[in-house]
Write a structure and sequence with these properties.
By secondary structure, this protein is mainly beta. Helices cover 0% and strands 47% of the residues.
């Protein structure tokens, strides 16, 4: 009898995290990739939003907004998320054949900063997520491998 291959858990980020910054961010690499999972979490000192991909982290931009108001791609409708500030995440070069099929709205009124995350657009190789924040917050944006993930942390006030 052949033993099944060992299961390898995702590699944690460790303690070598970038500093929080109060500015927009860009990065990633070209290539058609698909979003395979979306997660939100609350940790001491920050709220976290994570996008996981099937191969590499695609080209992305993370832009802060004065309000949590977003325009949906095809319809042009505006939607307002929970909170008073917003962040728009745009992924470029995503694979049209690997469309994300999980939850598209993550309301979290109990989180300190991140109040809601919602899929705004998934059309022709471009995916956008809107984040509603309860207050203006500095963020750290970084990518991880094994599996490929884009991580956005929002700094929470310390007591």
């Amino acid at each position: 009898m052949i033993a099944p291959p060992p299961v390898t858990p995702p590699t944690p980020p460790g303690n070598n995290l970038p500093a929080f910054a109060c500015k927009d961010a860009t990065g990633g690499s070209a290539g058609g990739v698909g979003v395979t999972a979306v997660r939100v979490g609350e940790q001491p000192g920050f709220d976290r939003f994570v996008l996981q991909f099937d191969s590499n982290v695609p080209q992305y931009s993370v832009k802060r907004q004065a309000k949590p108001v977003f325009t949906q791609g095809g319809s042009g409708q505006t939607i307002t998320l929970s909170g008073t500030y917003g962040v728009l995440i745009v992924l470029h070069s995503t694979s049209e054949s690997a469309t994300y099929s999980g939850p598209s709205d993550f309301p979290h009124s109990d989180f300190v900063v991140l109040k809601e995350a919602r899929l705004i657009q998934d059309f022709e190789g471009s995916v956008s997520w809107g984040l509603g924040l309860g207050s203006a917050a500095c963020m750290r944006v970084f990518s991880l491998t094994d599996p490929a993930r884009l991580v956005i942390d929002f700094q929470t006030p310390t007591s």
